[in-house]
Amino acid sequence: MKIDVIIPAFNESSSIGKVIGDIPKIVRHVVVANNGSTDATKEVAAGAGAIVLDEPQKGYGRACLTAMEYIASLDEQPDIVVFLDGDYSDYPAQLMDLVQPIMDDVYDMVIGSRALGNREGGSMTLPQVFGNWLATSLMRRIYGTSYTDLGPFRAIKWDKLQALGMVDQNYGWTIEMQIKAAQAGYKTTEVPVDYRKRIGVSKVSGTVKGVFGAGYKILWTIYKYW
Fold this sequence. Notes:
Elements: E1 3-9, H1 16-22, E2 29-34, H2 41-47, E3 51-54, H3 60-72, E4 80-83, H4 95-103, E5 109-113, H5 126-143, E6 154-157, H6 158-164, H7 173-183, E7 188-192, H8 208-225
Parallel strand pairs: 1-2, 1-4, 2-3, 5-7
Antiparallel strand pairs: 4-6, 5-6
Helix pairs in contact: 5-8, 7-8
């Protein structure tokens, strides 16, 4: 199967090379959406062998959409797309754990659950842990899902991803995908993934604005699609 990886990145020059270097060689393309970085993220990612796209409009979802647009333009489409953060908090080597249930033709989407895996102390803030619990609990009540995390490390069949019609430009990207997948009746599962302290400062949990902005957007997205 052809597997492509999408990494949205903003000022991750100190970590992006490590992330790309740890991605299993089975992956066809690593596509880094450089989301208006002011450091050497673009140069480091390109030097590590990634395809680098510039997306000056800030937003996690906007960066992911730019990468998807590029992949859609390729002559040969992938079978699976994996989303991965560029801060080295995830373990890229666990990518095979994510894609195997899809390669076995059992599931359409697999979420890497930090709640089920081993988390390094301090890798997630209390607002992050609470926010994940609240969001997954609400989805369970409203949509009948069984998610334990909104983890960014995830894999999905490319044709199924395209069919979702993703639109969110920022904080609501991950939960939009999970809600729409549930509404579409996709076969989904979770696998445990490990999580460590990120390199650098988080653009979301590292600021008060980011914490409240993400929390509001996640709750709004749950309500909107309900």
